[in-house]
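Data availability excerpt. The first of two example chains:
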Amino acid sequence: MVKKSEIFQFLYLKKEPVLFKLVITLLILSCGFMLKRSFSEQSIILTLSHSIQEYSTAKDYYKEHLAKQENDAIKIVSKSEEPQIGVVIIGESTSRWHMQLYNYNRETNPILSKMKEEFYLFDDVIAPDVMTIRSLEKALTLSNYEHPKVDKNFSIVQLANAADFDTFWISNQQPVGFTESTPTIIATAAKHKQFLATDSYFYNIHDESLIPEVKKALKTKSNRKLIFVHLIGTHRIYAKRYPKRFNYFEGVNERTQYKTEYSKAKVNEYDNAVRYNDFVLSEIIKMVKTENKNSFVVYFSDHGDDVFDTQDFVGHHNNKGSKPMYDVPFLAWFSNDYLKSNKKIDTLDSYKSRKYNTEDFIYSFSDIINVEFEGFDATRSLFNLNFEERKRIIKNNLDYDTWE
């Protein structure tokens, strides 16, 4: 019998498209009956089989429109010329349902909780989808639920380039595989690119390896820079997302809806990963703060996971879609210099409970870097006085805010 680890390694190391599709098809037909619960819950084979066509189509589309540094679709109306440092941190699989910052019953954010007065925490933000490809194609570009394919589309990286920022993309996710069609191809538009992780998700990958690289980017000579940091975050397998020193939680959490030995282990591992994520985020904020310049840090996750919160299931999948998979953290930190030169930010305390979908992030991003492009819509920016709440449509035309 073929071992699972060998199958996984084979899947992730082979890059030939035809052979790759053949292997997936054979695995679906021959191995389905052998899958144990822990494997089936990750829904890997199902996800891959459903994503093959989407992967191929999206990859060609993104390479044509979003992979180049310059994009003729961008028409800058106005922009600030002031020196500025911006850091956008994109998380992975992190649900606010397991964050102390959002009243989770465990201390999963011991550091950020102590820093809470230093940043703005938004408490009603959702992801547009529970899968990375579909979520980030919207969060990082002009695409949204109503207009999934935009004729003259561009990304936040290309927008930053057009506004004369020095752009950096620092990633801890493998640059090949099924996430390539969105973050990796978008990342190629950055002027400086680093992909630190070369192994698949089934190996130990820890986000603190990003910290020295972010520090190097902060120390570069350019006085207008935007640094995009793509975390491995709390992606399954959870126990491989944090070093042993963060093996903190044990026992059964009383909030866990489905209590078994398996759920106990997975919840503890996920909470350890969230606690480690807290450490990484706080370190990056502290580094930017130390620069003592006109700067900001924004963090949100691509989607969340349901870890036995609402169903007997762990992970994320459209067929199992639940609120923990859509409910994501969103925080924004601004330096004193930034706040002094951007008085509009003073009103953010009243904005923190706005109903917001990260599919509109490109407008919020444009707002905080003080760049207005042709087609900019202030009503879609979380940071704008003119923001208007709109229906947050998910799945197959489901209104998130009326979803029971």
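And the second chain:
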Amino acid sequence: MSQSLIFDMDGTLFQTDKILELSLEDTFNHLRSLDKWEAVTPIDKYREIMGVPLPTVWETLLPNHSVEEREQTDAYFLEKLIGNIKSGKGALYPNVKEVFSYLKEEDCSIYIASNGLSEYLKAVVSYYGLDKWVTETFSIQQIKTLNKSDLVQSIIKKYCITNGAVVGDRLSDINAAKDNGLVSIGCNFDFAREDELSQADMVIDNLKELKTILTNLHK
């Protein structure tokens, strides 16, 4: 039976950490230049909430700013992220391309479901040539609820998926699998939390482990 694997992007396929600090620092320097921020850049706070939809990010990091200011900050941040991706400052996690190639050889369908914005996801997929293996990339922007479970459900409906797994590092990925009757595979990578990973069906420390897991899923 063919398998479908739905991957998270940030902290699962893409080492967001490599460009996160740069882009966030650029963004808050910009806010300082506009006299809209005085304190240090809240990088630690962002790490705590990594993986939530961006509107929630700015509500958390800029609680005293207007919606318009948050939207402007979001646009600036996105611009910096994409610029850093295109200049090669980011990186995929080890073995992403090797594992994707293996999965395709095993007749698996690969999808990406992310809380990231569409333009950002396009930049990552394009720069690293992931569209060679990925059937389609889905952004949280595509659904009204901004809920990862609903996003995964939309993929399942579009592609009539009956068998597979969601691979991700945060609780939203684990819940998206469980809410849709798929296997949840937690990634013990940079932004992962032990209390969240404990709720996954299985946990990996390296994407290469998916080769073994795929065999077990087939069984």
